[in-house]
Amino acid sequence: xxxxLRFFLFACLFVPGWVNAQSLLVSPTDSLVRVDGLHxxxxxxxxxxxxxxxxxxxxxxxxAYNDTDVRITYDTDYLYIAVTCYDRDPQKRIIASSLxxxxxxxxxxxxxxxxxxxxxxxxxxxxxxxPLGVEREGQMFNGERVAPEWDNKWRSAVKRFPDRWQxxxxxxxxxxxxxxxxxxxxxxxxRHDLKNNQRAAWRRVPIAxxxxxxxxxxxxxxxxxxxxPGPNLSIIPYIAGNGARNFLxxxxxxxxxxxxxxxxxxxxxxxxxxxxxxxxxFSQVEVDQQVTNLNRFEIFFxxxxxxxxxxxxxxxxxxxxxxxxxxxxxIGLGRDTTTGQVVQNPISVGARLSGKxxxxxxxxxxxxxxxxxxxxGIEREFYNVAIVQRQVFTRSNxxxxxxxxxxxxxxxxxxxxxxxxxxxxxxxxxNRWSGKVWAHKAFRxxxxxxxxxxxxxxxxxxxxxxxxxxxxxxxxxxxxxxxNDVGFVARRGQWGFFPNVSYTAYPENSRxxxxxxxxxxxxxxxGLNGKLLDRExxxxxDVVFKNTAELSAGYYNYFTYLFSPFDPTNSEGxxxxxxxxxxxxxxxxxxxxxxRKLFQIQAEGWxxxxxxxxxxNVAPSISYRFQPYGSISVxxxxxxxxxxxxxxxxxxxxxxPRLELSFTRSLFLTTVVQYNEQARNVNLNARFQWRFKPVxxxxxxxxxxxxxTDLRIxxxxxxxxxxxxxxV
Length: 728
Hints:
CATH class of the domain at 13-222: Mainly Beta
CATH topology of the domain at 13-222: Immunoglobulin-like
Shape: globular
Radius of gyration: 27 Å
Structural class: mainly beta
Helix content: under 10%
Distance between the termini: 58 Å
Strand content: over 45%
Largest sheet: 26 strands, antiparallel
Number of strands: 44
């Protein structure tokens, strides 16, 4: 092998993303640390400090405008972090979206800790705090991604002064996973100074990458090994009562019910967690945002239920977005054989073992049993998933998995469905190259034919540098790869090709523009015989302004071949014929105003040819933030589709007013109204939450559905639910 090539491969795979000879050295505290935000304990004066934060945005070569000082200590139970965020412009308003926990990172001034306990630069945890003392935490995966749905107990306090704000954070060792007798963590600290439109980190993160990228974390060493966190058992019971009334079916009389159940979380080892759920109830989960469906294929909605979220990257990231061999939202659904509709089917019991065995090995095992509804023809279903992940090189890994659905009696989906496969996930030390190679195989009694016809495979390779991002992906989905009772597959019997490239320039002397540049996105599908079925070509130009506003505009060129009849309005009109093809051209655009302002406007749309007609699409969003107590917003979408006769023309709106109130840091109200003209439905959902103790809540959820023509009520639903997190 050529010497230059050998050196390149070594640098990509084995050289750490950040090499620093002087690590932060942390000593244990010799006195009690009171989490009050005052930093009066002696340990804070003696502790080494992490300072000199370097910008990640709007450039990555200068020091941060406002200084930040971070200090760390620990005792037998907690990792303590003290941060001082200096403010040279206290007259400027702090940006705070609300007092509600688990806020959006990019919409708030905040300080963030990125923590990699195993030093693999791939998985970890993040803990965040705003100047108003509002907390956020999440699990990290894929080297930089954050799952904020993850919840755990920790403590914090904030004090504000004329020239700074200070915070103290106490993170229980039982809340994070690490190996015994560890002497170091990889860590980075970030300051989002939104009011000055700056993002800065303790260890420099180039502007082309997310500031959360663990490739650039540095070593934080402990003068004494961290204590063994020991066993950790949490019991989270719930009790719920509900009432429902259907005004369109039956006699419209109220139907009342109650349930009791809960979760148990057991730290089998400091880095391996067992979750058990009995009769789980997910009624407090926020409703999905409705969309206008102009697609011929099923729409993918992400998982929101708490039981499925910890270490969810192990289960949810197999395959590609439009071809997942396992999709946890299939669990808890059943097809009513009397009506043909998909309905909720309760989960009786579930268990999940997930986490790290050591630095190189992760496992995930999931098993659930759903209920039986004989009157609807819904049988019990057993879902079992087993995943093993082995880290290779510096940050890459290989994965093997098996997904199994077994019916207690032959269900509408057959007695079983099984999917097995393997994947290689690439992530280089410097974050420049990433991607994956995967191959899956489905097994069902009704699958016949060649091996390849029930298989799927794909490849993804992404290159990211300061100015250039280039990506190539392809997938093959066999015509008998029928797994939509356990996974999600939008198309079968097709090849897919997805090229993307963009160039970003960062003008040095511009007073208004941070970056700008052109890009191209392609989506191409062909049949297994090579016949072109779909082609989407998008050419665009993006501009990011220094006041946080963004503008994008582009041109699209589409080709569509209909392999089955289709009504482009999805309104039960005359369908375009099978085996017909259409070309469409037009333009698209998007704009978002200064996100720091209390009043913000976002809008996007497209107009041009659409199948054998035209469409004008506009999707505006208007929001007003009355910080820190919440916001009110209206999200809308309008389509004006014009097709020649005898095909349907249609003009319909989707409008969604939303009110978010945070009365205190523990009392919240969210109300959403969704008017969907295409679906002929008006939905009202209101959720009241009282967090009376850490991770312990009382919920009131109310929902109604109406006919949009005369606002005649369809149904009504009310839930009262209380949960309590108890550490044993």
